[in-house]
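User:
I study polymers; will you set down one protein's sequence and backbone structure tokens?

Assistant:
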Amino acid sequence: MEKSNKVFIATSLDGYIADSKGGIDWLDTFPEINQVDTGYASFTADIDALVMGRSTFETVCGFDMDWPYQKPVFVLSTTLTSLPEKYQDKAELVKGSLSEILEYIHNRGFFRLYIDGGKTIQSFLKEDLIDELILTIIPVLLGGGTPLFSELTQSLIFECKNTNLFFEKVVQNHFVRKRN
């Protein structure tokens, strides 16, 4: 089975995934985007499991809705010792280096992974473990907050596979990692 790690995330025009207070209300700047297919359903249909960081997990747990995932969820955390009881049958806490975590997840039969959360995505990028990035850019300048990207020890080259424009406002770019 081919292994792949993919990102599907929205950013502000200046590259933030949350505002300076950790909020994501700015995602609804153009609510009409929620009325069209931006490819999320087909993206998630093509993955085996999700890997997310603690902050993203806690954000999702705070939504006023049922658990939104139908696939297994693995939560990375160096500080949590267990997940809240309410979510223990919905997600699994994993610890260790990314290579150890991926080996564990792959040994469980999950190879096509959705990587979510700022620090988690940054960690995967630092180790050159992201194969595809689907970035939906909401044209709002936040001026600060949680950045999607951080410093890298090497340049990573991606090629644009596809670009979509929604309502002449929101741009979605699909990048694939170019490997030698």
About this structure: Strands lie at 4-12, 16-18, 49-53, 73-76, 92-94, 112-116, 132-138, 146-147, 158-166, 170-177.
